[in-house]
Amino acid sequence: MGQSDPVMTTVCCGAQVACDQCDARDLAVCAVLDEDELRRFSAAATTARLEAGQTLFHEGEPADEMFSLTEGMIKLYKLLQDGRRQITGFLVAGDFLGLAFGRTYVYSAEAVTPVRLCRFRRAVFLRLLEEMPHLERNLLGRASSELAAAQEQMLLLGRKTARERLATFLLTIAERQRRTDSEPVDLLMSRSDIADYLGLTIETVSRTLSTMRRLGAIALDGTSRVYIPDREALRTIAGVG
Amino acid sequence: MGQSDPVMTTVCCGAQVACDQCDARDLAVCAVLDEDELRRFSAAATTARLEAGQTLFHEGEPADEMFSLTEGMIKLYKLLQDGRRQITGFLVAGDFLGLAFGRTYVYSAEAVTPVRLCRFRRAVFLRLLEEMPHLERNLLGRASSELAAAQEQMLLLGRKTARERLATFLLTIAERQRRTDSEPVDLLMSRSDIADYLGLTIETVSRTLSTMRRLGAIALDGTSRVYIPDREALRTIAGVG
DNA sequence: GGGTCTCATTGACCCACGTCAAGTTTCATG
DNA sequence: CATGAAACTTGACGTGGGTCAATGAGACCC
User: Fold this and answer.
1) CATH: 3.30.230.10, 3.40.50.970, 3.40.50.720, 2.60.120.10. Which one for A19-150?
2) What is the pLDDT of residues A198-227, one digit of tens each?
3) What is the 3-state secondary structure of A123-145?
4) Which of A122, B21, B173, B236 has the most CB atoms around its CB within 10 Å?
């Protein structure tokens, strides 16, 4: 029980990660746990890694596991039978996924970049949830924020123009990366992912970004590095204060 | 403490409602409370009524109260400055609204039909939440389902055609009203509400319903009563199994 | 350095849905 | 049962963004 013992997760895929040197230690659900809780929590977890493009799980599969993302980016999406895809969110370090009280996953999850995650058996996690009220409160808070973000996205998908969608998207990413106006933003995901997130086609995304560049609202360095010289101007385009 | 005492909520607007004769008793969050908890819970609540069209709260206002809808229908929506509106959901008896860990409401809420609700001061409700783990679990389950519904709606708004949107909408309502194929479905909300929920215009909603009627996929009685002769056929149109 | 593969950009054209403008139905009210 | 007023439907037409196709730009590999 010495305070200096690193809390270790079970070895998996050759990757052994100590919670106290985990990038997401202060971002993820485990941030609300005390030392003893963290010990039990991490004992229940295994770690996993995925390469970019690998699938974590598919919509409709039995929801036997839940995950906490510690590194990298994951996209969540739903498909229609003919292949039309809607990306419902991009998750980053600290985000939790797979929480399902139903029996199956309601979306698919795929790595955008290489990722690391903590992995929990569903039943084990639900037991921990009952033992740790902090944890449950934290998850409720997360669910509540995600819901607010989902509603914001419905407004975007239902009522905004292509230009407003792109402006909103860039601002959201810029705020998430906490950069100043002069620093560039890294998109990480492809045009195809952006299109499927914003309810557009890759051509429209490309054209709209080009137009914004021509107008001086943004500058592009390569395909995924974006400079936003004046966020306030972009906010005006985004149609939201 | 006699078991036969009806649990009463505080009088408000002249409406006095006993929990044990409340329509939503088995649907709402209070369904998970034991008798003692219910007593404390209802002691913390007042009841309220709204006429159709009245606003419960506006996006951006301080989120000082939370509500449990016991009767009628409420719509949630967000606005852009120029008046474009996106309805993010229709709530019915048993649904909870106003849960916000942030300081302000992130959407507006307005009565579609006359409604009754239980009303809680935010601080009081959050205290009850800490005392009643069942309640917290129930809210987490609700938030989780709402999130799944929101993702389904993103798929609809981002990727479905007008016809698919209407078919999906009608099926969702039919399932919510738990009617058989031969019984009609009551829409309750206006074409304008349907349009703003599905990311369309009222003209497109009207035209699409007319086309579906001409094709025999639905029959209309007045403007808000819809017969669905063959749900499976509508499911095919909706583009989802 | 050249070949190839993938992803992004750009152009030409098209169509589903939006806009604008009449009708028409419904329903509340005297 | 008239009389509005609001809600809904229908038609004619316009357009934002989709589709299809060609071109360009990296990245990777031999």
Assistant:
1) 2.60.120.10
2) 999 999 999 999 999 999 999 999 999 999
3) HHHHHHHHHCHHHHHHHHHHHHH
4) B173
